[in-house]
Amino acid sequence: TDAALMYDAVHVVSVAVQQFPQMTVSSLQCNRHKPWRFGTRFMSLIKEAHWEGLTGRITFNKTNGLRTDFDLDVISLKEEGLEK
């Protein structure tokens, strides 16, 4: 599951980068309080993503940026067997 989630995340970011060719990145400093000038546009491109990934349909809430329609089942191994 971790590998599939990571694959889908990298794919979404790579598509956003490809759609924004004029984006440039110069060296950034950790103690800098100024936001990245392309950050808002880059996040908008990610929020617009629609893709059928390894973990299912990938879409994002336009307001908060969280992934929508996404469920994970947590499975635990108990003495009686698997438990959801």
TrEMBL record:
Q: Which GO terms describe its cellular component?
A: membrane
Which named protein is this? Receptor ligand binding region domain-containing protein
Pfam families documented for this protein: ANF_receptor (PF01094)
User: Major location, coarse class?
Assistant: membrane
What superkingdom does the record give?
Eukaryota
The residues covered by the Receptor ligand binding region domain are: 3-79
> Which keywords describe this protein according to UniProt?
Membrane, Signal, Transmembrane, Transmembrane helix
Xref: SUPFAM superfamilies: Periplasmic binding protein-like I
Which organism encodes this protein?
A: Neotoma lepida (Desert woodrat)
Subcellular location as annotated: Membrane
**InterPro entries reported in the protein's UniProt record:** ANF_lig-bd_rcpt, Peripla_BP_I
Q: Does the keyword Aminoacyl-tRNA synthetase apply?
A: no
